[in-house]
Amino acid sequence: MWTQQSRGRMAQIAKKTKRYPSDLTDEEWDRLAPLMPKPGRRGRPREVDFREVINAVRYLVRSGCGWRMLPIHFGAWQTVYGWFRELARRFLFQTIHDIELMLDREREGREASPSAAVIDSQSVKAPSAEKRGFDAGKKIVGRKRHIAVDTDGRLLMVNLTTADISDSAGAQAILDGIRKRWPWVKHLFADGAYDRLKLMDKASYLDFVVQVIRRSDRQQGFKVLPRRWVVERTFGWMTRWRRLVRDYEKRIDVSQAMILVAMGGNLLRRNAHP
């Protein structure tokens, strides 16, 4: 539920955006500007406005439009797309997301690096994907998003696979990624789909403790499960960015960059306008 205070805060932020709600405010751009690529020492001067490039990408992910349908005042869509691919290749969106995640945790009075995570997956339709799979449980042809979030729902890791890959198989790459990027994570919460011998053996080898939270067989209807509801809320945050309602990307790396743009954008706005 939106409170009067939160409505007033969003109205104040809306006044600071240039044209669209997805546009960067001055406070947000001040946090991003130092991370932008520096111009080369040789060659002609760079003419691209990185703020407009980021605005265009955020507009596309937030509104769900296609590249060719970007408003013309962002510049040529080919230029925006080319720089989006270049910035993704440089892991800029990953860097922005991870920095803002740690700052957001510190702002909430917590350690920058989490010590516990919740893992789950979501199958989405992927009409343009190079490779797709069929999730028999969800009756979906497309890709599967395997994610890990901290106990407040901030995205820690994402692994994209075809939808026919099981939850436990997809989570094995999540464990490897968490151990490298977030070394202090020790405790993992998961549902019964992750209670598989191979995954548990790997978790033990990597020094994780996995706690499986099961739904009662006698339970009727919907009931919020401890810890598990957090990751479901994260999926809800993702699908507020309409480009993520389905997976429209042909390449997996582009799809992952779209997710980081969205989740990093949420953290950036929260930190820039506390």
Polypeptide structure, described:
The chain is an alpha/beta fold and 274 residues long. Helix content is 44%, strand content 14%. The protein contains nine helices and six strands, in the order αααααββββαβαβαα. The longest helix is centred in the C-terminal third of the chain and has 21 residues, at 252-272. The chain is globular. 34% of the residues are buried. The mean pLDDT is 89.
Q: SSE order in H/E notation?
A: HHHHHEEEEHEHEHH
Mass-distribution shape? globular
Distance between the termini: 19 Å
Largest sheet: 6 strands, mixed
Quaternary structure of the protein: single chain
- Helix tally equals 9
Q: Mean pLDDT, nearest integer?
A: 89
Fill in the keyword field for this structure:
about 270 residues, alpha/beta, six-stranded mixed β-sheet, 9 helices, 6 strands, about 45% helix, globular
Helix-strand layout with pairing:
Layout: H1 4-16, H2 26-32, H3 50-63, H4 77-89, H5 92-107, E1 116-125, E2 133-135, E3 140-149, E4 155-162, H6 167-181, E5 187-190, H7 197-205, E6 209-212, H8 228-239, H9 252-272
Parallel strand pairs: 1-5, 5-6
Antiparallel strand pairs: 1-3, 2-3, 3-4
Task: Please provide a brief summary of the model.
This protein is α/β, with parallel strands linked by helices and 274 residues long. The chain has helices spanning 4-16, 26-32, 50-63, 77-89, 92-107, 167-181, 197-205, 228-239, 252-272; strands spanning 116-125, 133-135, 140-149, 155-162, 187-190, 209-212.
